[in-house]
Every structure is written in structure tokens, then in C-alpha cells.
């Protein structure tokens, strides 16, 4: 039996859990993420006994939602397990949806019980950065590679900002490593002044992009015009869901926008409503893109 989500079901707010509900709805919105996961489980059904508690809780939640005939579902069991596995999410205080997303995906990819499934998810969700550091003393360029799962973008201080502007702000800039932040050059064997630049080397099939809306106890509510489709490193990706935040720092309310069968819906806890999706909605905080042909 297939448990791939083909419908939208609301999630009950059981006490400041809109951040959790919205994060889950955004993950549900990626059919590639869920299809790969459940096709693997279908092929190796016994592996479900040897996976992390959080991944098992996520799988169980997807199965229950796919089976229900109700318009919403109570995720109390998932919340209980989440609180036991991570103290940050224990209790019923409002938390940051992006922090939860980072925790969940990293947990799924760091499953020491089942390396096969964790490697599968890691391959699906992680990309690679290429970092250049140019030493001003010996003129040697050092190249290193680091993995990423989330591209966290600064919002430029200007008007009429687009997602492209945010990418250019992050990846066209050259950082000078100087003063207290000097670079230790292996060739010079000392700390020197250097220039650093980062590029995207490879892009995953499921890409998470977040905007740095929260800084120094302030929220940046500037609209950023995002795109339905983007092309990164010759990989075409389409927008399938967003996590939205309304209000100020340390509180507010989260919802998710999810694309299903060509239409957009807003998942606001237990309510699911068809919407005219705006690419310039200032509440958009996290975007989920996935590979498209």
C-alpha cells in the first residue's frame, strides 16, 4: 500500500505548535522527499524497526494522515516524541520553525541506527559549497568543500528585492579576512590577510532556502519577490511549499503554503484553504524547492 500524501489535512494546534505544524506541512509538500522515503520503506519494510525515533514518528504521522477521512489530525504523539528527543521543543512555548526544520532533517540524515536510509535522505537534501580563500601574502588559493542542506540568505537593504538579489548578495560578495578574523595559511604557516568567496558546487533534489528575517531581536519584514521556478547549477527546481511567519520576534504565528495538483493552499493549523499565492508575500520565511524535469 502506498502512503504517499495526495491530499492536504490540517494539523491541530495543541498549544503554540503552529511552528511545528507549518514545518511538517512544508515537508509534506515535497512529494519527492516523501516518495523516495516511502518507496525505500516499501522495498525494505523491516528497516522501520531500526530507524531513529524522530524519523519513525514522521513516517507514522504521514501514514496516519494518509488514512484519515477527517479534515484535520491531532499530531500529539509526534509532539511528545519531539519533546523527548530535543529539550528545545519540550513543552508548549513558541519556537522557531526554521530551527525545527534544521533539527528534523539533520536527525533524519544522522540516523546511526539505519545508515542506508540516512544516506538516502542526505543525498536527497544536501548540496555542496565550494569555498575559495586567496592568501594576500603568498597568493595561494585554497579550495575546500562543505555540505549544506539549507541556503540561508541575507536580505539586501534596498527596495524591490528579488530572490536573485539575495543570491547575489550571498554568492557574489568577497569577504576580507583581516584583523581578528585573519586566515591561517598552510603555505605561509601563519595568520594572514585573505579574501574568501563561496560558490554553490552542487544542488540537491530537495532544496531548502531560508531568509534571514530575524536579526538582533528585530524582524525584517521586507517583501522578497521569490520565483515559482529557479535554475541553480543547471538543475531546474520548482517551488512546492513555504513556511510563513506573521508578527514580531519571539512570538507571532506560523502557517504554510503548499502546492497540490497545480493549486496553492494555506495550511493554518487545522484549516486548509485555497489561496491566490503571492510571490511577494512579506511573511515568507522558508521555501522548499524540488527537482523538476
TrEMBL record:
<dbReference type="InterPro" id="IPR038765">
    <property type="entry name" value="Papain-like_cys_pep_sf"/>
</dbReference>
<dbReference type="Pfam" id="PF00443">
    <property type="entry name" value="UCH"/>
</dbReference>
<feature type="domain" description="USP">
    <location>
        <begin position="9"/>
        <end position="292"/>
    </location>
</feature>
<dbReference type="InterPro" id="IPR018200">
    <property type="entry name" value="USP_CS"/>
</dbReference>
<dbReference type="GO" id="GO:0016579">
    <property type="term" value="P:protein deubiquitination"/>
</dbReference>
<dbReference type="InterPro" id="IPR001394">
    <property type="entry name" value="Peptidase_C19_UCH"/>
</dbReference>
<dbReference type="InterPro" id="IPR028889">
    <property type="entry name" value="USP"/>
</dbReference>
<dbReference type="InterPro" id="IPR050185">
    <property type="entry name" value="Ub_carboxyl-term_hydrolase"/>
</dbReference>
<protein>
    <recommendedName>
        <fullName>USP domain-containing protein</fullName>
    </recommendedName>
</protein>
<dbReference type="GO" id="GO:0004843">
    <property type="term" value="F:cysteine-type deubiquitinase activity"/>
</dbReference>
Amino acid at each position: 500500500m502506498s502512503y504517499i500524501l495526495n491530499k492536504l489535512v490540517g494539523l491541530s494546534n495543541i498549544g503554540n505548535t503552529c511552528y511545528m505544524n507549518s514545518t511538517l506541512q512544508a515537508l509534506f509538500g515535497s512529494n519527492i522527499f516523501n516518495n523516495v522515503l516511502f518507496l525505500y520503506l516499501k522495498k525494505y519494510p523491516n528497516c522501520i524497526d531500526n530507524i531513529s525515533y524522530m524519523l519513525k514518528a514522521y513516517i507514522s504521522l504521514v501514514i496516519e494522515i494518509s488514512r484519515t477521512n477527517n479534515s484535520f489530525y491531532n499530531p500529539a504523539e509526534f509532539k511528545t516524541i519531539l519533546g523527548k528527543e530535543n529539550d528545545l521543543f519540550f513543552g508548549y512555548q513558541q519556537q522557531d520553525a526554521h530551527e525545527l526544520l534544521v533539527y528534523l532533517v539533520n536527525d533524519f540524515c544522522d540516523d546511526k541506527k539505519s545508515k542506508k536510509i540516512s544516506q538516502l535522505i542526505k543525498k536527497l537534501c544536501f548540496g555542496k559549497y565550494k569555498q575559495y580563500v586567496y592568501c594576500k601574502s603568498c597568493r595561494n588559493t585554497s579550495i575546500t568543500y562543505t555540505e549544506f542542506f539549507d541556503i540561508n540568505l541575507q536580505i539586501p537593504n534596498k527596495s524591490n528585492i528579488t530572490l536573485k538579489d539575495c543570491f547575489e548578495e550571498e554568492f557574489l560578495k568577497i569577504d576580507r579576512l583581516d584583523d581578528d578574523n585573519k586566515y591561517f595559511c598552510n603555505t605561509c604557516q601563519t595568520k594572514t590577510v585573505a579574501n574568501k568567496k563561496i560558490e554553490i558546487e552542487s544542488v540537491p533534489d530537495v532544496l531548502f532556502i531560508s531568509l534571514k528575517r530575524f536579526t538582533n531581536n528585530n524582524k525584517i519584514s521586507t517583501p522578497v519577490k521569490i520565483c515559482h521556478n529557479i535554475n541553480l547549477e543547471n538543475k531546474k527546481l520548482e517551488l512546492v511549499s513555504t513556511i510563513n511567519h506573521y508578527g514580531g520576534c519571539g512570538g507571532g504565528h506560523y502557517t504554510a503554503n503548499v502546492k497540490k495538483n497545480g493549486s496553492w493552499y494555506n495550511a493554518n493549523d487545522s484549516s486548509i484553504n485555497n489561496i491566490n499565492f503571492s510571490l511577494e508575500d512579506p511573511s515568507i520565511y522558508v521555501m522548499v524547492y524540488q527537482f523538476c524535469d
